[in-house]
Structure formats: C-alpha cells, structure tokens
Design a protein that fits this description.
The protein is α+β, with helices and mostly antiparallel strands and 321 residues long. It contains 10 helices and 13 strands.
Length: 321
C-alpha cells in the first residue's frame, strides 16, 4: 500500500470497495440490486505436478470473489511461461488443471493473456456478481461475533518443506487437495447464515488477514490456539523452522499489533503468521446466527472450526490465548 501513496485514481460513487481498503476484491455497483466483484491473482508453482498447480492457482484466484460473498461469472487466464526452457506440455497440464477448477466453479472462461517469462506464473482475473446488500467486506466484524475458519493452516510450511525435500509426496498431495478445494460452499453458507464479515486466508497468513479484519472493523479478535486447525505434521515442520519467507516478514510487521499468552508454543505462533495458499475463509458472525452457519457448513461437508470471538478494541488487534 505504501507504493500507492500519493497516486490519485479519482473517486466514483459506484465503487463500494476499492484500493483504499484492505478487502479481498473490488466491488462496483452497476444497478440497484447488482454489483460486480473483481479480482486478480497469480503466482509461481508451489507443487511439482503442473495439473495440481493449475487447480490450486485457479482456486486461489476464485477465492477472493467467494470471500466477498459473490458468485464468479467470468475468468481470464494470466500466464508467464519460459517456452524455450520448459516443454509446452507442462503449460498444457497447468491450463488443464485451471480449466477443471474453473468448470467446477461454474464461471465462464472468456480469454486471457500470456507472456514469455523467466519463471512460470499462472492465475486468473475473475469477475463475479454480488448483491450490494450482501457484500461481505472484512470490515464488518462486530464485538460479540464468533469466528470460524474453514480450512486448516500449514500450507506454507508444507510447500516450503517440499521444496527442500523434507516431506513425502503423500503429505504434499493431501495439502494440494485442500488448497485446490473451492471456498464456494463455505461462501454460500456464510451468506445464507448472515455473516458480518469475511476474508480468505492467503499470503499474509491468519494473523495478517485477521489483523486487517480487526483493524477495519475496530475490534480485537481473540483466538483460541487450541481450536485453530493445522494440517498434519505442520507444527512439527514449524518446530524445524520450515516456514515460508512470509512468516517472519508478517510477524515482524505485526509484532506490536498482536499478543500471545505464554502458553502458546512458538511453533504454533509462527504457523499463525505463515503464508497460506488458497486457504479457507475466516468468517465473523453474530452469536445468534452461529448455529445456523454450523448447520449449513455441516450440510455442505465444509469443516467447522470455531476459533474465537471479537471483542471491543483492546491494545492489540489480535490476542491469542
């Protein structure tokens, strides 16, 4: 955001959520009952299998629309590819993976753009639809709300360990399946249940995205570390300092804005800062609607993890017990 300081893009009353906030996507209202949700995301491979990488990257891009309570309508593919160094069959497998996930989402693929690059990169630009009255910004959490997380943490640790050949293929495959899972069902449940706010947990980790929700909402999030779900072996990998580079950077940035009780192990603390890829939704919802959200998540076979609650603003944005 510092790079944008001093750059003026003008103001448009139809932009309900734009770059001045910290939301997952932009929202543009074009009629009384309809608004567009727009987002873009892409990144280099995090797994060896190009097909799985394509699925994960596509799911990650689509997630921002789901986090806003929207439904994806169209996508455009973004590709960077070193065509002289890597066989084009690899690119084909990436695109096959992306196509499978796009089809699962129900969105229409309408085009894209590719460039020759030194490193493989793939992702989507996504346009979705949302009812302006149902937009789930990350700034809507209210003191007294309860918090849910719909996917386990630990993807950053597992993919980092994979790059260093410290974990087996079976664990990576299990993590890849979680990352490739769309947040569609979780989003449908939170909209129907009347969630106050939501964000997806990606590159800034649970603590980074949680802090954005807390700051935008003017509350403090109180998280129970024993209720936070982690992928198998993730805590042990964290004890071995097999974490993504983003973990230390996010922790340093948020150091004065979060607080941990002494009982929370350092390895668990670090995982809560660690970067996630295509993570779950962090949902804030009133206590009165919580049971309905849990019921809907169960019906859709989405994991239900109640990890904390929101309280009036304290000295820190997040307190972990």
């Amino acid at each position: 955001m510092q790079v944008l300081n001093g750059i003026e893009y003008g103001r448009d009353a139809r932009v309900l959520l734009g770059p001045e906030g910290m939301d997952d996507a932009g929202v543009y209202q074009w009629s009384e009952n309809d608004a567009l949700v727009q987002t873009l995301d892409f990144f280099p491979p995090i797994v060896d299998d190009p097909f799985l990488y394509g699925k994960i990257a596509a799911a990650n891009s689509l997630s921002d629309v789901y986090a806003m309570g929207g439904v994806p309508l169209t996508v455009m593919q973004i590709v960077g590819f070193p065509k002289d160094e890597v066989p084009l069959s690899v690119l084909r497998d990436i695109l096959r993976g992306g196509a499978e996930t796009i089809a699962e989402s129900g969105a229409a693929m309408v085009g894209g753009h590719s460039v020759v690059d030194q490193e493989i990169k793939y992702g989507l630009s996504v346009t979705g639809r949302v009812d302006p009255a149902q937009v789930k910004a990350n700034a809507g959490a209210v003191a007294g709300d309860v918090l849910y997380l719909t996917k386990p943490l630990g993807m950053g640790a597992i993919t980092t360990a994979h790059k260093k050949e410290k974990v087996g293929a079976e664990l990576v495959e299990r993590a890849a399946k979680v990352m490739a899972t769309l947040n569609r069902d979780a989003a449908e449940a939170m909209v129907e249940a009347g969630a106050s706010a939501a964000t997806d947990v990606t590159g800034f980790g649970l603590m980074g995205h949680g802090a954005e929700m807390a700051r935008g909402s003017g509350v403090t999030l109180v998280l129970d570390h024993r209720a936070v779900p982690f992928m198998d072996e993730a805590v042990e990998l964290s004890r071995k300092n097999l974490l993504s580079g983003g973990s230390a950077r996010t922790r340093a940035f948020l150091d004065s804005q979060v607080g941990f009780e002494s009982s929370v192990e350092d390895a668990v603390q670090n995982l809560m800062f660690d970067a996630e890829t295509s993570g779950g939704l962090l949902i804030s919802i009133a206590e009165a609607q919580a049971a309905r959200l849990e019921e809907l998540l169960h019906e859709k076979s989405v994991p239900v993890h109640r990890i904390g609650h929101a309280v009036p603003k304290e000295e820190v944005w997040i307190r972990v017990t």
